[in-house]
């Protein structure tokens, strides 16, 4: 209950002390009391701040969240492949993406497990946060690597690749940039493949960057 203001308290005492037969004076007191109650300042209504738009994240940031989930699936989980996913609802940022997908392998289970991480909810199987796409049998072939060996993030890999792609970038401005992280027999360490285009299959130009050292490896036309 709100405390009664001093002025209102005085009017109440006036009403209590009055003879009820003095109707005109009573009406004046009640009118004044009503005016005081209505004139009290209203409490300000809290306004809800608008939600901030979703922001793209780096590959390593998304991979870490998916890796934590993969470790609950199998404690020997190794990274097999990571790729970026373009989202129309999330603004493009060099070296980042609105969603990522990662596949992990377990020798103990003889299976692979695939997860996605998205900063927004989307139709289909792409959900906000980490989401499992299920597992598949795995023969234990080469290509899996320890999460810690990919110490270079996608934004740093992009900076290195952009320096080597200045001519191509100038001739093809505004192209979407995609990312693929994997370990192949082509290189000793896992490598980021920075792709000018939506995917490897639709691109005619990409650059490999060492995911452990951050150094330029090769240019693919």
Helix content: 25-40%
Residue runs with pLDDT of under 50 for 5 or more positions: 25-30, 32-38
Report how far the terminal alpha carbons are from each other: 76 Å
Structural class label? alpha+beta
Can you walk me through this structure?
The protein is of the alpha+beta class. The chain folds into two domains: 6-39; 57-220, no CATH class. It is built from five helices and ten strands, in the order ααβαβββββααββββ. It has helices at 6-17, 23-39, 59-73, 154-164, 166-171; strands at 57-58, 78-85, 96-97, 99-106, 111-118, 129-137, 177-182, 191-196, 206-210, 216-220. The strands form two sheets. The chain has an eight-stranded antiparallel sheet, covered by helices on one side. Strands 1-3 form a two-stranded antiparallel sheet. α1 (6-17) runs antiparallel to α2. It is globular. 30% of the residues are buried.
Write the layout of secondary structure elements.
Layout lengths: L5 H12 L5 H17 L17 E2 H15 L4 E8 L10 E2 L1 E8 L4 E8 L10 E9 L16 H11 L1 H6 L5 E6 L8 E6 L9 E5 L5 E5 L1
Helix pairs in contact: 1-2
Which characteristics define this entry?
221 residues; alpha+beta; two-stranded antiparallel sheet; 10 strands; 27% strand
Compact overview of the structure:
The chain is of the alpha+beta class.
């Amino acid at each position: 209950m709100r405390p009664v203001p001093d002025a209102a308290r005085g009017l109440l005492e006036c009403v209590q002390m009055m003879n009820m037969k003095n109707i005109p004076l009573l009406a004046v007191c009640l009118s004044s009391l009503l005016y005081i109650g209505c004139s009290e300042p209203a409490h300000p209504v809290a306004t809800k701040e608008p939600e901030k738009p979703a922001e793209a994240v780096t590959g390593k940031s998304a991979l870490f969240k998916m890796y934590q989930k993969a470790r609950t699936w199998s404690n020997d989980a190794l990274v097999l492949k990571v790729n970026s996913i373009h989202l129309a609802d999330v603004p493009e940022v060099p070296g980042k993406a609105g969603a990522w997908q990662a596949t992990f392998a377990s020798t103990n289970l003889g299976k692979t497990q695939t997860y996605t991480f998205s900063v927004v909810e989307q139709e289909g199987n792409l959900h906000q946060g980490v989401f499992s796409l299920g597992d598949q049998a795995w023969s234990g072939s080469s290509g899996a690597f320890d999460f810690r060996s990919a110490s270079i993030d996608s934004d740093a890999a992009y900076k290195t690749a952009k320096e080597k792609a200045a001519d191509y970038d100038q001739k093809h401005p505004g192209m979407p940039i995609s990312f693929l992280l994997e370990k192949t027999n082509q290189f000793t360490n896992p490598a980021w493949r920075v792709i000018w285009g939506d995917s490897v299959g639709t691109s005619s130009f990409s650059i490999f960057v060492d995911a452990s050292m951050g150094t330029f490896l090769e240019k693919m036309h």
